[in-house]
């Protein structure tokens, strides 16, 4: 038989434990400058980078834009499968804090990581060091549209800005909403680099328009579209074109 009062004591200690956990978490958040916009992504930090606690660094745009690690691994596996080469050259045209570039490098790709924001690439270099792959990545600060004509590679990876977390309030996300230029323009610049293109897009993207991107080539490129899930939630849509599509 339980002694009188045991249950109450247990409840109190569970409550105290929960309170302590909250206090520790709040201190951690404060130490890492977690703003209200970033908070929900901070709670998903180990899905974004499994090595988060080893010193991963982010800025606000990095938090809401980084490709979750398992999805970035999927993109990297598909890159390797798309070429018969042992070290394919992947051009990550909007590299951000390195979520994709790091996984490409871990799969033995040679990576060119471009971002217009020098601060992003500082963070990406820090993050690549944590995964031990900084030596496999050429980091280039610059505007993709200016650099594109001088780039050569096997696969082009495009994860451009979607316009911030409010992207999801748009019912039918047409390619015009992509930043800093519309999706058709981004795709045309990518085509000049290689006919093997991977594009990471919002889950509410207009799929008809995504298919139409393949018509920008003659004959049209093969296209394959997949939804990317993480713990039963769809996080985005990936379109594979040309040699990157499954035949
Ligand atoms: P989300 O929809 O803002 O988060 O971003 P979540 O947790 O799915 O939101 P919820 O409200 O549905 O619960 C989901 C994922 O999309 C992020 O983890 C990023 O990988 C990607 N993503 C989001 N944004 C705003 C961008 C962006 O601007 N650019 C790129 N390339 N990816 C983005
Ligand atoms: N895939 C990345 C996230 C990319 S977010 C990751 O997993 O970390 C999109 C990035 O595009 C932002 O970092 C932004 O600075 C960059 N960007 C915006 N305009 C650009 C341009 N004209 N050229 C290159 N990069 C650009």
TrEMBL record:
The keyword Phosphoprotein applies. One of its GO terms (cellular component) is Cajal body. Keywords: Cytoplasm, Methyltransferase, Nucleus, Phosphoprotein, S-adenosyl-L-methionine, Transcription, Transcription regulation, Transferase. One of its GO terms (molecular function) is RNA cap trimethylguanosine synthase activity. It catalyses: a 5'-end (N(2),N(7)-dimethyl 5'-triphosphoguanosine)-ribonucleoside in snRNA + S-adenosyl-L-methionine = a 5'-end (N(2),N(2),N(7)-trimethyl 5'-triphosphoguanosine)-ribonucleoside in snRNA + S-adenosyl-L-homocysteine + H(+); a 5'-end (N(2),N(7)-dimethyl 5'-triphosphoguanosine)-ribonucleoside in snoRNA + S-adenosyl-L-methionine = a 5'-end (N(2),N(2),N(7)-trimethyl 5'-triphosphoguanosine)-ribonucleoside in snoRNA + S-adenosyl-L-homocysteine + H(+); a 5'-end (N(7)-methyl 5'-triphosphoguanosine)-ribonucleoside in snRNA + S-adenosyl-L-methionine = a 5'-end (N(2),N(7)-dimethyl 5'-triphosphoguanosine)-ribonucleoside in snRNA + S-adenosyl-L-homocysteine + H(+); a 5'-end (N(7)-methyl 5'-triphosphoguanosine)-ribonucleoside in snoRNA + S-adenosyl-L-methionine = a 5'-end (N(2),N(7)-dimethyl 5'-triphosphoguanosine)-ribonucleoside in snoRNA + S-adenosyl-L-homocysteine + H(+). Gene3D superfamilies: Vaccinia Virus protein VP39. It holds the Pfam family Methyltransf_15. InterPro entries: RNA_cap_Gua-N2-MeTrfase, SAM-dependent_MTases_sf. Belongs to the methyltransferase superfamily. Trimethylguanosine synthase family. May form homooligomers. Interacts with CREBBP/CBP, EED/WAIT1, EP300/P300, NCOA6/PRIP, PPARBP/PBP and SMN. This is Trimethylguanosine synthase. The lineage of its organism: Eukaryota, Viridiplantae, Streptophyta, Embryophyta, Tracheophyta.
């Amino acid at each position: 038989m339980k002694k009188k009062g045991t249950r109450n004591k247990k409840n109190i200690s569970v409550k105290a434990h929960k309170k302590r956990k909250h206090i520790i978490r709040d201190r951690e958040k404060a130490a890492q400058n977690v703003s209200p916009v970033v908070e929900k992504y901070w709670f998903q930090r180990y899905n974004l980078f499994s090595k988060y606690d080893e010193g991963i660094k982010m800025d606000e745009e990095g938090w809401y834009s980084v490709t979750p690690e398992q999805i970035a691994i999927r993109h990297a596996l598909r890159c390797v499968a798309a070429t018969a080469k042992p070290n394919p050259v992947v051009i990550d045209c909007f590299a951000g804090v390195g979520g994709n570039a790091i996984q490409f490098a871990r799969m033995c790709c040679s990576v060119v990581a471009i971002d217009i924001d020098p601060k992003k690439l500082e963070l990406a270099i820090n993050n690549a060091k944590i995964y031990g792959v900084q030596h496999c990545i050429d980091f280039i600060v610059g505007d993709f549209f200016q650099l594109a004509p001088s780039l050569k590679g096997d696969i082009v990876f495009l994860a451009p800005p979607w316009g911030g977390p409010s992207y999801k309030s748009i019912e039918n996300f047409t390619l015009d909403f992509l930043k800093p230029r519309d999706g058709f323009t981004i795709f045309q610049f990518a085509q000049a680099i290689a006919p093997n293109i991977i594009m990471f897009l919002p889950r509410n993207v207009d799929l008809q328009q995504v298919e139409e991107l393949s018509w920008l080539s003659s004959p049209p490129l093969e296209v394959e579209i997949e939804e990317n899930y993480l713990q039963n939630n769809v996080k985005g849509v990936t379109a594979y074109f040309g040699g990157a599509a499954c035949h």
